[in-house]
Amino acid sequence: MDAEFIEERFGAELKNILGTLHSRPELSLEERETTALIRRTLSSLGVRLIDLGMETGCVGVLSGGKPGPTIGLRADIDALPQQEKTDRPDRSAVPGVMHACGHDVHTTGLLGAAMALCAVREQLAGNVVFLFQPAEETLSGARLMLDRGLMEKAPMDMLFGLHNSPQLPAGTVGVREGHLMAAKDRYLIRVTGRGGHSSAPHKNIDPVVAAAAMVSAVHTVVSRNVGPLHAAVVNVGYLSAGSPEDMVVDEAVLGGTVRTHEEKVRRRVFDRLAEIAEGTARAYGCGAALTRESIVPAVNNPREMAAVARRAAVRTVGEGNIAAPALNMASEDFALFAERVPAFFYFLGSGTPGGRSPSWHSPYFCAHEKTHLYGAALMANSVLCAMDKGP
User: Fold this and answer.
1) What is the number of alpha carbons within 13 Å of residue 348 lying toward its C-beta?
2) What CA–CA distance (Å, rounded) separates 82 from 89?
3) DSSP string of 170-211?
4) Mind listing the domains of the chain with CATH numbers?
5) What confidence category does residue 215 fall into, taking pLDDT thresholds of 50, 70 and 90?
6) Of 367, 381, 390, 388, which is closest to residue 6 (Cα–Cα)?
7) Tens-place pLDDT, residues 88-107
8) For residue 354, what pLDDT is reported?
9) Are 182 and 328 in contact, with CB atoms under 8 Å apart?
10) What is the C-alpha separation between 355 and 361, in angstroms, rounded?
């Protein structure tokens, strides 16, 4: 299957779906209208819906005409809290909410794949799970679906997902084996001192001064502790402390995120954060405690899945339009699914060739008008290639 086939057979309906989704964006775990549209579309195709007891998100199962593996396809469905500034005719009609990351494109593409696969269901050697995930932007939707029994109610042998990429022109597909997107962790450092009146600094132990020194020190972790051929990002996102101007407080709190690809780098970063917190606090007479929360692991495409994915990508856009995307330091909760089932994650070109292609989360973000057609073909071909010659 290719984008031209998808457009010829289902183009008008998919264009209407995309326009509706883009003009009516919904935030994470508020995707009620989006979910209703997905359910109506899948039901009209004869796809069996699976109840996870969730208000938003949707899972459907298509049974093929022959025995074989069950292949999952995933799309995310939520939007972002920002005001759209494009001039497209179907721009957001919801103030302060926008599909600025292209999840409307992903959803439309997966519905297009469902239409295409349902048209040949008797020829399918296996089953297909269509997984429409809420709340990717908050990195909470995948875990919620897993907690509600996704893998038990809709077990899969393989899973494919994608994200559009404005850095790649429409009509290209990014296929990368191994590390692709970063793990995300959250950290918090609580600095404790002894408060008092600002007129007598010698009688106090000021945690704000220690916390300020930590901010500078934390920003040396990557440059001085992570090898230049490896990747990590350590962010100080906030520093919270203060009181009326004549007081020294007892406590200051700072925190942020850590993104890494390799587990050894992840461990090294947190070892250094703990050493910096404790050592700096001690130097200023304070105490410090570091806590860590793992949000999502890294997206890592296994070799055997990459072989299947590459065949599907070549079938979709041709050998000359396969790109090798660079490592990306953003995070994706698709990685949580990949801990439970062999999985592969593509980057799908959504940039306008020769034109301006604003990045994700920009108020001017606008995927190329045919991105969803390429996405539909790529997802459908992933199923066909996996059923034909799975890992």
Assistant:
1) 33
2) 18
3) TT-EE---EEEE-EEEEEEEEEE-B-EETT-GGG-B-HHHHH
4) 3-180+298-388 (3.40.630.10), 183-296 (3.30.70.360)
5) very high
6) 381
7) 999 999 999 999 999 999 99
8) 81
9) yes
10) 18
